[in-house]
Amino acid sequence: MVAGNPLKVAVKVKSREDLEKIRKDILEKRDSAKLTVTICSGTGCRAYGSENVYDAFNDEIAKQGLEDKVTMRSTGCHGFCERGTIVVIFPEEICYLRVKPEDVPEIISETLLNGKIIDRLLYEDENGQKLTHESDIPFYKLQNRIVFGNNKFVDPKNIEDYLALGGYSALSKVLSGMTPEQVVEEVKKANLRGRGGGGFSAGVKWETTRNAPGNIKYVIVNADEGDPGAYMDRSLLEGNPHSVLEGLIIGGYAIGANQGYVYVRQEYPLAVENLYVALEQAREYGFIGTDILGSGFDFDVMVHKGAGAFVSGESSALMSAIEGNVGEPRPKYIRTAVSGIWERPSNLNNVETWATVPLILDKGADWFKSIGTENSSGTKIFSLVGKVNNTGLVEVPMGITLREIIYDIGGGIPGGKKFKAVQTGGPSGGVLPESMLDIKVDFDELSRIGSMMGSGGMIVMDETTCMVDVARYFLDFLTDESCGKCTPCREGVHLMLKILNRICAGNGEEGDLEKLEEIADTVQTAALCALGQTAPNPVLSTLKYFRDEYLAHIRDKRCPAGVCKNLISYSIDSAKCKGCGICLRNCPVEAISGEKQKPHTINQAKCTKCGTCLEVCPENFGAVIKLSGGKPVEIAGAR
Amino acid sequence: MSTKDVKPILLVEDETVLRESVRDWLVDVGYDVHTAEDGEQAMKTVAEQEFGLVILDLRLPGKDGLEVLKEAREKQPTIKGIIITAYPSVETAVEAVKRGAIDYLPKPFDLNYLEEVIERSLGPVQIEIKPTPAEEKVPEKAVPVQEEVTMTINGKEIKATKGMTVLEAAKMAGIDIPTLCYHENLTPYGGCRLCTVEITKGKNSRLVTSCVYPVEEGLEVKTDSEPVIKARKMILEMMWRRAPGSHEIKKYAVKYGIDRDKFEIEPTYCILCGLCVRYCREVKKKNMLGFIGRGTEREVMFLPGADFNECLACGECYKLCPTGVMPSNYGLAKLPK
User: Half-sphere exposure (CA, 13 Å, Cβ side) for A147?
Assistant: First the structure.
């Protein structure tokens, strides 16, 4: 990939005035009226081939000799991943979606040179109206992107972009005029709660680490995000690494730590790459190193690349890994804030929490508290995935309802199907039914109704999702990810999974649910770490809200959603079948037989229940029926 | 060691590792054990001395174990036989019984179980209890300032020293808490969770593991409350399915009246308490053993480069193993040859 504007001369920033001067120079050198094409190069858009789009722009601009007229910027994730590759053209903020390399010549000749909008590439709302500007698209309009929104202005490999937006001004404010205690106070006052899991007050944790005995302390970024379907921390670190570093340096100053660590997943190659570039640039400018901004404060950052293990996100396991040991939780009842890495006070926060810190110091605790709810201030980034029209990363103020996120921002459920549940908080979280859609999303409300905020995973499920199968899926994940150190988690999760497998296979028995609850209770109360203690949540929350579905599997041998293969069968209604032969030709295992113009039949012994016959049977015939427990599976709008 | 009244045992096994480890285990529990590598050697030994029991590997170089058993019983009709094999089949099991074997053990087997079978056929031996090397060198804990805390365990007020764990305080007060992965000379591990107790601070109660939870002023501890017993019972039921019949677990299984059929038995024989791993690392400073794998795939393994002869010469971790799987061929079969 071609990096953004390479740094010409690195200038050591020695004071607050220095920084402001450099910022002024950067802004002066930039013409805000100049055409700028930003191409999202987050991991999602890269999967759509955004690098080819970038290259196509680069080539075409060079070919037409437009280098002086047009600036190109490869940015981090914009969030609307459903519609990648995303191209936004400034200063007008024209937003083109699903851009392919072949669209590029037209964009250049029409939009860049003639100012004409290409309708085909615009967002079309439900009334068929085309929306030109990114900020008009409902997906973006209803969000409050204070943390994530800068991604689209920043080339993560160019510190100048971050500086142009006011980057590192919070750090210079802190270092030039605030005592560490004042910084801690401000974060406490802002009521910033950790965005990685339990929602513990970051300020209180900072204070604990600050006051813990010892001269050597550490601050750590937890970038070990590993929930299935969640990628907000990854995208933030990829797209705006300096915002995370600035928060970390401020934290180091406040806590009294001169050493920071970033624990990042090795499987996030772009995040690792951009982080290294950002660290190098921050060092060149003097934001990391000795005597930062002339304050006398020294701070350095080391990167620890972790081999992906879900449990390593747990604080004691993560610290054990940084020490060079196996990433397994330690059974300590002394908080890591007091005794962490090498038994020294260590403060761990996740990527999003650190990235929020500069905003609080820059704009003040009162501003931050004005967003969100009383006990959960600010915004939260969610990765909205699953059976929802607009999948992507959304940043919303705390207190928004689940319904607003899923329907207004997410655009509802695709294919006219019915909403069934939403899973929040990743594997340790819970599943919530439709009756909970109007609760206000914040730390306390989600816990109250049996789920959790977690790091912000949000998986939407429609009526074609089987809740027993969902619980089984998460337990399967947790069985693989349990470190195996303590008995309740290692054995208990495995035993629960065995029962769920049995129920899904149609061999559930009376008493299974009670047994599940009994095991869950022991795992919750007796497991060593938070991963184990919360591992039964997917089972308990589905049992709480969808017990009938479990009972249907056990008693009627019926999977109401028509998912569990052992409990479903396909059949052809002889009254409706016209003998067209489409299903017969498409069946991959030749399980369908029948003469032309005569009703066909399915050989149940051969059928692998792939559902192809149901899909291909012409809509006006509708002869193939999915059955479960002797009854047809009825899904609205689904065929 | 007293071996009076008990006839010696002959162990016929061609695999050195297994032969020596089983011999050591049986010698340690008090038996007089002779060994042979094959049938020929075995028959020579049988001609020279009277044995109470012969343990035979089914597959031996030359004559197989069943053949040797038959011949040995022709020479000494009272001799009892146990067949061990990595290749179990119904045919050979039936044949073994026909030839007078009292048991037929597929490898890997639990040495505790083997010991039980031997004890049933030969009678118990009086064991002289030797302190293990670990117990001999109790490091003196340097506690310069002894700050005293007052707390209650099961309603009884006790005094403890700051820095102690709840388990240590309970032991001092003569209150029994069950443990499996705990050893007083090793770093607490908190893995088996059997020593779980309930603590109350103010209005909040929760379960913690006493082997790591530090004592504190005013702490209320209950070692046998209903939630504790419930968790402990289920933890034992989970262990039972992995190491059924193991002495240590059986002891607790009886005490807590567990439902042995609650979960399907899927033996791994090892309950992953980590005593052997930690003993080797912390006391012997050797690091021969380690864990590999995650979740239910977790296993104790010899680490690459481990000097196997050194392990055989030491064998101190065997005595710590609560299930007896460590010194059986299950653990040692995985040694590089």
Answer: 31
Question: Which residue of A lies nearest to B230 if distances are taken between CA atoms?
Answer: A522
The pairing of beta strand A123-124 with beta strand A94-96:
unpaired
Bridge partners, residue B160, by sequence: B149
pLDDT digits (tens, 9 = 90+) for B205-230: 999 999 999 999 999 999 999 999 99
Neighbouring residues of B5: CB distance < 8 A, sequence distance ≥ 6 = B123
Through-space distance between the first and last CA atoms of chain A, rounded to whole angstroms:
44
In A, which residues are within 8 Å of B291 by CB distance? 326, 484
* Side-chain half-sphere exposure of B187, counting CA atoms within 13 A: 11
Cβ–Cβ gap A494/B296 under 8 Å: yes
B98-157 residues touching A, CB cutoff 8 A: none
The 10s digit of each residue's pLDDT in A595-626 is 989 999 999 999 999 999 999 999 899 899 99
Report yes or no: A601 and A569 within 8 Å, Cβ to Cβ: no
For an interface test with A, give the residue of B162, B186, B193, B210 to mutate (most A CBs within 10 A): B193
Instruction: Check A526 against B231: CB less than 8 A apart.
Output: yes
Can you tell me which residue has the tokens 């002959």? Answer: B10
Residue A296 in tokens = 């006398």
d(CA B2, CA B66): 31
Q: What is the pLDDT of residues A269-281, one digit of tens each?
A: 999 999 999 999 9
Check CB contact under 8 Å for A479 and B296: yes
How many other β-carbons are positioned within 10 Å of the β-carbon of residue A28?
8
Q: What is the pLDDT of residue B140?
A: 47
Distance CA B6, CA A381 (A): 74
- Residue B92's pLDDT band, with cuts at 50, 70 and 90, is confident
Cβ atoms of residues A311 and A317 within 8 Å: yes
ipTM of the complex: 0.83
Residue A493 in tokens? 């999760």
Closest C-alpha to A191, from A388, A444, A412, A381:
A444
Q: How far does the CA of residue A317 sit from the closest CA of chain B (Å)?
A: 14
Contact A488 B238 (CB under 8 A): yes
Which of A328, A335, A495, A528 would best serve as a mutation to test chain B binding (most B beta carbons within 10 A)?
A495
In this complex, do B295 and A521 lie within 8 Å of one another by their Cβ atoms?
no
Strands (E), A231-287: 259-265
Kindly report which listed range (A504-513, B156-165, B310-319) carries the lowest average pLDDT score: B310-319
Q: Among all chains, which residue has been given the structure tokens 């190491």?
A: B243
